[in-house]
Design brief:
single chain, mainly alpha, Four Helix Bundle (Hemerythrin (Met), subunit A), two-stranded antiparallel ribbon, 6 helices
């Protein structure tokens, strides 16, 4: 589903947004991301899903920051809110980080199975990939914010 479809289906909406709102979301994503990375040090057997879920939350919040940067937000009442946020952010990035967004959607599905299904394990390779993808997304948001600040003369 593309951005126009999401708008036409009333799943996302155009809003007025301040750059400080974007930075607040980005900062929250960074806090969760950094906490997750620090948690790897004391990782106990069976804790991988907790860290993975936190990394997912950092990614989801990062995607919300991207939407805000472009003046959008997902409707809170929309079913599949997380899917919409990630999909809309991917559309706004116009093929940038395409591989990362593909893995992020898989991450969303896996996190959902952790929370609501019967999935019990995550490999170290999956955990490392989640860290890499979240880090790449956060780095891109930093770049987008800097570009926006330059446009605004801040």
């Amino acid at each position: 589903m593309n951005l126009s479809d999401l708008l036409n289906n009333n799943q996302i909406e155009k809003i007025a947004c301040q750059l400080s709102d974007v930075k607040n979301r980005r900062n929250k994503a960074y806090r969760i991301f950094n906490f997750s990375k620090k948690s790897l040090v004391g990782l106990g057997a069976g804790d991988e899903d907790i860290i993975y879920t936190n990394l997912y939350n950092a990614v989801r919040i990062s995607c919300e920051a991207i939407l805000l940067l472009y003046g959008y937000r997902a409707k809170k009442s929309s079913e599949g809110h997380h899917y919409l946020v990630i999909n809309a952010a991917s559309e706004l990035m116009n093929k940038e980080l395409e591989n990362e967004f593909s893995r992020i959607q898989k991450m969303r599905q896996k996190r959902n199975r952790f929370d609501y299904g019967d999935l019990t394990g995550i490999s170290q390779a999956e955990l490392q990939q989640a860290i890499d993808d979240a880090g790449a997304l956060l780095k891109k948001i930093d770049e987008l914010i800097k570009n926006k600040e330059n446009q605004l003369g801040i």
